[in-house]
């Protein structure tokens, strides 16, 4: 359990999103940079990353967040800020920019244990670059 000034909570969200057109661009150095940026965002926003997998064509993020942050806000933060930071830092005139598809999946660990979600993400790390 975690606490804020006015709440005790245990809110864990599994968020999944894709690069635009589901292109397999999240490999090697790109995947490493995206991982690093996602951790920066979590630190800046006061969100704890419980598990993270960057696959060539999608991202699995399992986070714990205070109640003030709704899942849509979390998805928008991680998708929007990560693409802006990556494109600003790493995409030169010839470099490929990161563009995310519009949608995302968001689920809670309310009816399954967080360990179940973490195990699911770990199983998908086999293809992780």
UniProtKB/TrEMBL annotation:
Q: Where is the Transposase IS200-like domain?
A: 8-124
The record's annotation in InterPro entries points to: Transposase_17, Transposase_17_sf
Which Pfam families did the record assign? Y1_Tnp
Q: Which domain of life is it from?
A: Archaea
- Name under which the protein is recorded: IS200/IS605 family transposase
Which gene name belongs to this protein? tnpA
């Amino acid at each position: 359990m975690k606490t804020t000034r006015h709440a005790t909570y245990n809110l864990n969200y599994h968020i999944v999103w894709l690069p635009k057109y589901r292109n397999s661009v999240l490999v090697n150095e790109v995947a490493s940079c995206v991982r690093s940026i996602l951790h920066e965002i979590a630190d800046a926003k006061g969100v704890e990353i419980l598990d993270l997998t960057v696959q060539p064509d999608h991202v699995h993020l399992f986070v714990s967040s205070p109640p003030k942050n709704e899942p849509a806000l979390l998805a928008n933060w991680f998708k929007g800020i990560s693409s802006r930071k990556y494109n600003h830092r790493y995409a030169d005139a010839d470099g490929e920019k990161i563009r995310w598809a519009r949608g995302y999946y968001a689920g809670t660990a309310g009816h399954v244990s967080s360990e179940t979600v973490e195990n699911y993400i770990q199983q998908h790390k086999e293809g992780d670059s």
